[in-house]
Amino acid sequence: MKHFSNQPTPPKAGLWILQKIISKDIRYAALGDFEEIFFSIAEEKNYLSAWMWYWGQVIKSLPSFLFDLVFWNIVMFNSYLKVAYRNLKKHRGFSFINISGLAIGLASCILILLWVQDELSYDRFHTNSDFLYRIESTENFADGKKYHTQMSPVGLASLLAEQIPEIIHASRCTRFGGIHLRYKNKIQL
């Protein structure tokens, strides 16, 4: 059936939805039938009736499309599981090597991720953590070996605070045993 530019056309959104949900095998014939019936309803009654009928067909087509989509996805998933199980049974050695390699690789990646996350969160609980810095040094021993440490000389914190105006506060911390921290009346070991 020929239609001219002044003749009503099916809704473009409905046509787009039908093109997406109707299978490729019957799409051309089904859309042609829908368009033909739309034009005959528009001629017999009016454009509004044809428009409502067309959207009714779109809405009626959705449940069957969704059912087919879900049903066939479940069927294919079950099929994939059966094939995988059969391959695991048939090739046990290769399956063991592949699965153990995958498990070791995933475990390694998770451990590395946790380590990196811990390193990046160091001292982030402070309110002004972007302004915190730590002095580290490399010590040279007599036998030529170098030792990297976070220790610094005793008076370095106060000296740096005096000579560098950008330093707001400086403090020292230590891990030697037997040192007590005191704040007001609280003593911490």
Q: Distance between termini? A: 94 Å
Shape type: elongated
The Cα radius of gyration reads: 37 Å
**Strand order, sheet with most strands:** 1-2
Instruction: Count up the domains.
Output: 3
The largest sheet is: 2 strands, antiparallel
Q: How many beta-strand segments?
A: 4
N to C succession of SSEs:
HHHHEEHEE
> Uncertain spans, ≥5 residues at pLDDT below 50?
none
Structural class: mainly alpha
On the 0-100 scale, what is the average pLDDT?
A: 85
In percent, how helical is the residue content?
A: 55-70%
Strand content: 5-15%
**Distinct helical segment count:** 5
List keywords for this structure.
189 residues, mainly alpha, 3 domains, two-stranded antiparallel ribbon, 7% strand
Give a quick summary of the entry.
58% of the residues lie in helices and 7% in strands. The protein has five helices and four strands; from the N terminus they run ααααββαββ. The strands form two sheets. Strands 1-2 form a two-stranded antiparallel ribbon. The protein has a two-stranded antiparallel sheet with strand order 3-4.
Descriptive notes:
The chain is mainly α and 189 residues long. The protein has 3 domains: 12-86; 91-120; 129-188, no CATH class. The chain is 58% helix and 7% strand. The protein contains 5 helices and 4 strands, in the order ααααββαββ. The protein has helices at residues 12-21, 27-44, 47-90, 92-120, 156-163, and strands spanning 137-140, 146-149, 181-183, 186-188. The strands form 2 sheets. Strands 1-2 form a two-stranded antiparallel ribbon. A two-stranded antiparallel ribbon has the order 3-4. β1 and β2 form a beta hairpin. The radius of gyration is 37 Å and the shape is elongated. It starts with 11 loop residues before the first helix and ends with a strand.
